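pls ignore typos typing on phone
iron/sulfur cluster + seq
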Amino acid sequence: MGFAFNDEKRKQFDWLVTRYPTKQAALLPALRLVEAQAGGVSQEAMDYVAGELDLPPAFVYGVFTFYSHYRREGEGKHIVMVCQTLPCALKGACQIVDAFKEHLKLGVGETDAEKLFTLKKVECLGSCTTAPVAQINDDYFENLTPEKVRDIVLALKNNQMPPHISNGPSLEGGCKQWMPIVEAYPEGK
Amino acid sequence: MLVKDYKPILMDGAYKKGEWTLENYLKKGGYEMAKKVLAMPRDPATNNVPAMIDEVKKSNLRGRGGAGAPASMKWGFFDFKSKKQRYLTVNCDESEPGTCKDRVIVTYNPHLLIEGMLIAMHTMGIENAYIYIRGEYVVEFEHLVAAVAEAYKAGYLGKNVLGSGFNFQVTPHRGAGAYICGEETGLLSSLEGDRGYPKIKPPFPVVEGAWRCPTLVHNTQTLSLLPSIVRQGGETWAKLGPQKSPGPMVYCLSGHVKNRGLYEAPMLITMKELVYELGGGIQDDLALKAVIPGGSSMPVMKYNGSYVGTDGKEKTDSLDMQMDFDTLLANNSLLGSAAVIVMHERTCMVSACYNLVRFYHHESCGQCTPCREGTGWLEKLISRIYHGKGKPEDVDTLMSVAGQMSGTTICLLSDSCAMPVGAFVTKFREEFKYFCENGKSMVKDAIPL
Ligand SMILES: Cc1cc2nc3c(=O)[nH]c(=O)nc-3n(C[C@H](O)[C@H](O)[C@H](O)COP(=O)(O)O)c2cc1C
Ligand code: SF4
Ligand code: FES
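k done
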């Protein structure tokens, strides 16, 4: 199955390309657009982006795999990233990982058969003063306890908004990527 | 105490919902300082604003990204003779373990950063800027995008800004999870659409940076301080805090203190005040054992006794140490990003060191052998000790491997791993020895790490 940007992503992509002196520089943002549209970055999508940016596909795969935060194809709908670095570890990150393992019935690095969850251990999420921390998709969950983990997982399993989201005031309607600037400043170079 | 009287600039409005908007920023006198700088004449020969460069010099502003380099020094080396484009890049990658201040500026005070960028751009004759924000920060990115969009709409960004005849364009750029993209040349590689591989310096980015053009790279906090320098004037601004480390600093207090959080203060504050007054003391009223004063890359301070330094002399670390760039340097550590990580008596230093070494091994980009292999060997060695299979000679091997990782690589990640390992092993040698000899931690009831 091929990949192509939808109209809204195309608009952002075309604008992004005008923001840099080279086409290549739009690669990381373009992969973010793919991810937002398709829920993961597939090889077809990388080939498509390579074509759009006049880059060799192998180069695009190489760049993509260098970075750990893109959604890979085949990962769960909810990617659970538990921070394990020292400031979180000092505040009990081990217990948080164990709680996620228990409630998700998954090991670290695993995805369930229904492709609902992927559990990952990650390095410092930049929220150390509110450790222990986990990120699930776009949201941060801070000052976690095993009880909070249980409630979060339960809500997600029931397709409900999870409790304890703590990444400050999110703007209405979720992340629109670069769209607000595209609309405010549509002209190119 | 001085810190209580201090009125925050960077953390102003922090954690207040809706505070980030242009409307609120304008109410506080926002963008007036950018207007003032835009009215200053540019020197046609160099296309920069000498009067403003002078103010920054007088302010003694030092970069908040980790190295504490004087901003005026970086600006002084900028290649104004080059006929190429010039770029400004804001470092908002914020991945040094312990550090979490830039995200608060970007979420609650994004226009302060944009105004700071405008000041820097006009001063240095730069028309294009990028804000490199780490990929994990989605809500932060949303706020940044919303604020940049507002600034474009209101004419603070875009073509012919405020009738100045100059165009100022700012593009937020999202990373995708790699600590090394916080290193300035790694960041530029990533901005160019490549793997985040650092590049050999020199040439420094101010001479040959993004797309091989002169590029100014600054931390988010550094640039956000520029409006206050214009408002107060460099000379007055320089009077806050120690002479060589002036201006506010945001300390990120994490780990085993009762009141963790971000504390903006002049750099006159001491370790004791941070941990016991602002931090409210140690969690569960346990004894303090150790503090990493400036992000995980910086040498740890020991507070549960003395140790024998690498020079063979007996030493103790002082809690009365003032938390500024030079005092920490004089105490064989570094202020770095001012991320203060506190550890109580139930923390096993071997486990803490293992945790950090795993981090650096994971984040090494792999270009240089001493870093790629060194971080790997260190991890294997400490892992062996941690799993009870250590040999008595492993402690010296750790020091010897760490000793060969400094100064031989493209970027400082290798040193950033070697430095803390060296300090952990030197200052807590008895714990490492005990673990090797007994196959278990010397610490009673050690918390799992
Ligand atoms: C391994 C490594 C990681 C770094 N990570 C960051 C970072 O996350 N944020 C940052 O501002 N600076 C970071 N730095 C420092 C930058 O290279 C650069 O010195 C800094 O952004 C310059 O800004 P300043 O002059 O405002 O301090 C890092 C340096 C190294 C060696
Ligand atoms: S020192 Fe390490 S992180 Fe830096 S360029 Fe070399 S291998 Fe990469
Ligand atoms: S160590 Fe977990 S957020 Fe920094």
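The pocket of flavin mononucleotide (ligand 1) is lined by residues B 63-67, 69, 74, 91, 93-96, 182-184, 217-219, 222, 411-413, 416 (CB under 6 Å). The mean pLDDT of chain A is 95. more later
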